[in-house]
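Hi everyone, sorry if this is the wrong subforum. Our group has a chain we'd like a structural model of before ordering constructs, and none of us has done structure prediction before. Sequence below.
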Amino acid sequence: MKTSTINKVCVGEALVGSGNEVAHVDLIIGPRGSGAETAFCIALTNQKRGDNSLLSVVAPNLMTKPPTVMFNKVDIKNAKQAVQMFGPAQCGVAAAVADSVKEGIIPIDEANDLFICVGVFIHWDAEDNAKIQDWNYEATKLALKRAVLGEPLPSEVIAQEQVVHHPLAAHDYKKGGF
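Answer:
Right subforum, don't worry. Here is the predicted structure as tokens:
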């Protein structure tokens, strides 16, 4: 898959898996000089207790290109959860970014001038590290593809809004609204 130039901030989202190991990724990707670069810099330098950002690395001393910062979407409350973020989640996100470049979703000639920010959800009771890694890989790769392609299209959202169900919703706004 070959995509065109990424010349603006693009937004992607994906949910993969189920249970406590579910991967729910929100991300932005954009060029140097955009809000994505600013968000990247702020996320990487604004560390707080329970809110930590880290670079996506394929292995120590080998960060992904485009540079990718991961941030947690819920407070990290214990060492196990931190290790899951800095281990299986980081490996999954890094592999997804690398494969997205390899497969042409992200143009390789733009990889040095793009910035990616990935919000990762790690449930406090997550146990299965293989699921965390695999599902964060799948979710990140899908979210990147959707972001770059501008998916879903507005027409898809309108067509599906009355058909699909949010898995965590209190109730649905079906059949004409509120």
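For your construct planning: The mean pLDDT is 92. The beta strands are 10-16, 23-31, 53-55, 57-59, 62-63, 68-72, 114-120.
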